[in-house]
Structure formats: structure tokens, C-alpha cells
């Protein structure tokens, strides 16, 4: 858990965001954000939202899930770059693009 707290603090600082900004965006009080950065256990959803707010990508590997860690390094690098670019898009555009991609997958049976 130590590496998660360090990563969360680092990506927040690299994004130039304050603990107060994160607290407001996540619906917490500032001491809660400080606690998360200090090692307080939090949810996967909070970690994912935190990364999104900071414009970062954090790969969370759940037991039994496929992971990019085992993938070809070039494929992994491309997937992470696509994720970074995706997070730079405004939420309404991401939602529209995701719906379009789902429709294409459904139509082609891919």
C-alpha cells in the first residue's frame, strides 16, 4: 500500500493540484486526502478518479484479470499512451466515443 500512497501524492503534485482541490473534486475534506496520501486505505474507485483528475494513468490489477504487465512491452506502451490521450478529452466526448466503440463491437461481434 506504501507504493500506492506515494504514487497518488506524486501524481497530484506533478499535476500541480492541491490537497484541497482533490478533496473538493472527490467530495472529501482535506484531512481525508492527507490521510489517503499518508496510507489510509481507500477504494479502487477513488484511486481511479484521483488518477483521472491528475491526468494520469494507474494500472490496477485485480486478481484473475488480464494485465498489460504480461503483454508485449510495445503494446503496453501504446495502450498506456492511448489511455493518457483518452483522459485529456472532455468527458462528453469520451462518453460519445465510448458509445460509438461499443456499437461497432456489437455490430461486428468483435
Structural write-up:
With 110 residues, the chain is mostly helical. The chain contains six helices and no strands. Helix 1 packs parallel to helix 4 and helix 2 packs across helix 3. Helix content is 67%, strand content 0%. The protein starts with a helix and ends with a helix. It folds into two domains: 2-54, Orthogonal Bundle (434 Repressor (Amino-terminal Domain)); 68-108. The protein has helices at 2-14, 19-26, 30-37, 44-54, 73-88, 91-108.
What separation lies between the terminal Cα atoms? 37 Å
Can you name the CATH architecture of the largest domain? Answer: Orthogonal Bundle
How would you classify the helix and strand content by structural class? Answer: mainly alpha
The CATH homology group name of the largest domain: lambda repressor-like DNA-binding domains
> What is the makeup of the main sheet?
none
Q: How large a portion of the residues is in β-strands, by DSSP E?
A: under 5%
**How many H/I helical runs?**
6
List keywords for this structure.
110 residues, mainly alpha, 434 Repressor (Amino-terminal Domain), 2 domains, elongated
Blueprint (SSEs and pairs):
Layout lengths: L1 H13 L4 H8 L3 H8 L6 H11 L18 H16 L2 H18 L2
Helix pairs in contact: 1-4, 2-3
Amino acid at each position: 500500500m506504501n507504493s500506492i500512497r506515494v504514487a497518488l501524492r506524486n501524481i497530484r503534485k506533478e499535476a500541480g493540484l492541491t490537497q484541497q482541490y482533490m478533496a473538493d473534486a472527490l467530495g472529501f475534506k482535506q484531512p481525508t486526502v492527507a490521510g489517503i496520501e499518508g496510507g489510509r486505505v481507500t477504494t479502487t474507485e477513488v484511486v481511479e478518479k484521483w488518477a483521472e483528475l491528475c491526468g494520469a494513468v494507474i494500472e490496477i490489477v485485480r486478481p484473475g484479470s488480464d494485465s498489460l504487465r504480461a503483454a508485449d512491452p510495445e503494446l503496453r506502451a501504446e495502450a498506456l499512451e492511448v489511455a493518457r490521450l483518452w483522459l485529456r478529452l472532455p468527458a462528453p466526448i469520451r462518453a460519445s466515443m465510448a458509445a460509438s466503440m461499443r456499437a461497432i463491437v456489437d455490430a461486428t461481434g468483435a
